[in-house]
Structure formats: structure tokens, C-alpha cells
Amino acid sequence: MPLGPLKRVVRHLMLNHLFTEPAPGQIAHSEASRILVTEPGMTSWLGHNYDEVFRSFGLFPEALKRGSSGGVADDGHPGKTATALAFDQPRGFFGGLLAQEPWRAQRFAGAMHAMTRGSHDHSYLANGYDWEQYKGGLVVDVGGSSGFQSIAIATAHPDLHFVVQDIEDLGSKLEEHVSALSQRPKISFQVHDFFKPNPETSADVYFLRHIIHDWSDSYASKILRNIASVMKPTAKIVIMDIVVPEKGVLPWHTDRMISFMDLQMMVVVNGKERTRQEWDELLALADPRLKIVSVKQPQYSVASIIEIGLVE
């Protein structure tokens, strides 16, 4: 890259706290830019956002004209999004782009793993819910990727048994994570499409971490219905997702984060972040027996833990 344009770009980055100038003409990492080199997960997260998310925003008006979410009546199909247009993927982000380009799927998995810290730390779910009430029971991690959240819960509650489910066979990746532990948790992997009835009918808990917000109401209700139709009467569904508060309840920077995530869900996958009323409406659409038992937002967590039970 020619030196002149490079200097101008780097100067702008420095004004945004990326890189520093310890001496005239010298460039060093700031704490922010250092992360891009030392934290592969954050590199994946930025790659996903800049390459796939931000590229899609410019096509959102065209997606609306073609029948995307946001006021046009449709079923919330994931292939009717700005991202689907940007990458010419009629099956959308998950079923099209990630399925056909494995390197993107690998990067996205790394990005999601990076989001197990900070305001999305996996300890919020591991320690913020009463898992001890199911001592010795079975917990099903629906759409659990390579099982990093289940491992965090199992480490804190070793008496529980876990089945991690995902549409892609990530059993070897789960085994890789488990083999690095000093004590092996009671955990296994199962290939499962959550748009079909769940094969685990004796589970005590079905938990979904940041899954439901990826889908419109018509699709999210199918996911929940396929659990409700097989779960035993005493079982619970535990969802870790955002419950959008009234304006001004949370600090402005948290409100801004939630608002951006909501737009990102709309543009990329036709999903959404939901208010408490919208969560109630979604459950009624999925199965009238599903009712929210409790909602708890752990301190410093942007998401809440939503406990759902069957009420005849």
C-alpha cells in the first residue's frame, strides 16, 4: 500500500483508538487493536460484521421492496433479507451462505464463541439460573454449536447430564473442547434439526442461548413448538436472549447495543429482539400451554434468562 494513503488511514484509526504513535512516524498497537492480533475470536467477530452484516445494510431498502420484514406482510423467510440479496442466497444466511461456504461458517462459529465474554459472558447462564434443582437430570442444549455453553454449565454443575444438538455434526469439535478439561463433563453430541420434533423426550431442561432472536415469529414458534410437543409436563424451556426494556430503563450504551442488534437481526436473518409482550405473543403462537415462569437479567448481562413451563 502506498505510504501516503496508509498514513491517512492509520491517522483516522488512531483517532478511533486503534493503534498509537509512540514516536513520530512509528505505529504501535493500542489495547483495542492488539485484540485483533491476539484474540482470533474477535477477529472472526469483526470479519463477520464488516464482511457480511455491514455489507448487507445498504441493500435493506431493496429487500423491503421485495417483501422483507419491517412492515410488509410475509412469513419472515430468512431468504427475504438484505443479506440474502447481498450474497445472492435465496436460502438466507444460515441455510444458504454458511451452508455453502464452510469457511464462513467456521468464522461465524468463532465469532459466536467470542461473544461468550463481556456482556454476553457464558457465566451469566451458568451461574444465573438455579440448575441445582435438576441435580442428576438431563439438559438439552438446542442449537448448541460445539457445546461451549454446556461445558460452562457442566463445569459449574457437574452432576447434570448434557446433550448438545446442532444441525451440523460438531461432535469432534465438542470432543476437542472436552479433552482440554481436567475433569470430563457428562456431555454428548446429537445431530438434530430444530425445525423437527426434538428426539429427547425425557429432558428436564431444553435451553436455547441466542437462538430465538435469529428467527421471525413464524419460524421461532416452530422451534418452540417442536420442543413443547415432546417435553414432559415438569420440564422447562430456558432461553437466554434479550428482553427489550422500555426506553430509559437501561443505560444509553446498553440501549444502543440492543437497538443495533435488533437491526442486525432484521437485516441479516429476518429475526428480532423482543419485548416481554412480544415474548408472550410468541409463546402463544407456538403452543398456548407455554407460559413464562420468570425473567431474570443477571448483573452486567445484556440478555435475560427466560424460564418457560407448560401450563395446562
UniProtKB/TrEMBL annotation:
<dbReference type="InterPro" id="IPR016461">
    <property type="entry name" value="COMT-like"/>
</dbReference>
<keyword id="KW-0949">S-adenosyl-L-methionine</keyword>
<protein>
    <submittedName>
        <fullName>O-methyltransferase-domain-containing protein</fullName>
    </submittedName>
</protein>
<keyword id="KW-0808">Transferase</keyword>
<keyword id="KW-0489">Methyltransferase</keyword>
<feature type="domain" description="O-methyltransferase C-terminal">
    <location>
        <begin position="138"/>
        <end position="284"/>
    </location>
</feature>
<dbReference type="InterPro" id="IPR001077">
    <property type="entry name" value="COMT_C"/>
</dbReference>
<comment type="similarity">
    <text>Belongs to the class I-like SAM-binding methyltransferase superfamily. Cation-independent O-methyltransferase family.</text>
</comment>
<dbReference type="InterPro" id="IPR029063">
    <property type="entry name" value="SAM-dependent_MTases_sf"/>
</dbReference>
<dbReference type="Pfam" id="PF00891">
    <property type="entry name" value="Methyltransf_2"/>
</dbReference>
